[in-house]
């Protein structure tokens, strides 16, 4: 069984291990984070926790029973009831519905914990698996996205508060 939990300082070693173990797998579908990311991981991780503490972002990890990280699911730029969604799952669980189920769960948390009404997510044209995850999790295509100089599809999901 896995558990989606908000990122905290104690997750740092498992997050780093996750990123290192899956680096080549991720680089096949999204731009590589680069050596600098790993060289300055501790500082970057502390900055993420500070952003989360300030309410700018909300970071989550999907943790396996053994404490390893199976995925990262992040809400960026929380503002005016909206946020941008980003996520990545370990190669060993890819294609098993883990990302879709966890994105759905994060949508519920986005409403309940963060008061969000709308989530948006962009993918590259080549990242068909991510597009499938978004569609299966209730997102709809709303137009083109500028993904750091590259274009891709932009998806959105309007969230409904749980009653």
Write a structural description.
With about 160 residues, this protein is of the alpha+beta class. It contains six helices and seven strands. The radius of gyration is 15 Å and the shape is globular. The chain starts with a strand and ends in a 5-residue tail after the last strand. The mean pLDDT is about 90.
Task: Record the SSE blueprint.
Layout: E1 3-6, H1 12-21, H2 23-27, H3 35-39, H4 41-53, E2 58-63, E3 69-79, E4 82-89, H5 98-112, E5 118-122, H6 128-136, E6 140-147, E7 150-158
Parallel strand pairs: 4-5
Antiparallel strand pairs: 1-2, 2-3, 3-4, 5-7, 6-7
Total count of helical runs of at least 4 residues = 6
So what's the overall shape? globular
Instruction: Summarize the helix and strand pattern as letters.
Output: EHHHHEEEHEHEE
Instruction: Classify the helix fraction into a percent range.
Output: 25-40%
Gyration radius, rounded? 15 Å
Structural class: alpha+beta
Q: How much of the residues is beta strand, in percent?
A: 25-35%
- The overall average pLDDT, rounded, is 92
Based on DSSP secondary structure assignment, what is the total number of beta strands? Answer: 7
Contiguous runs where pLDDT drops below 50 for at least 5 residues: none
Q: Order of strands across the biggest sheet?
A: 1-2-3-4-5-7-6
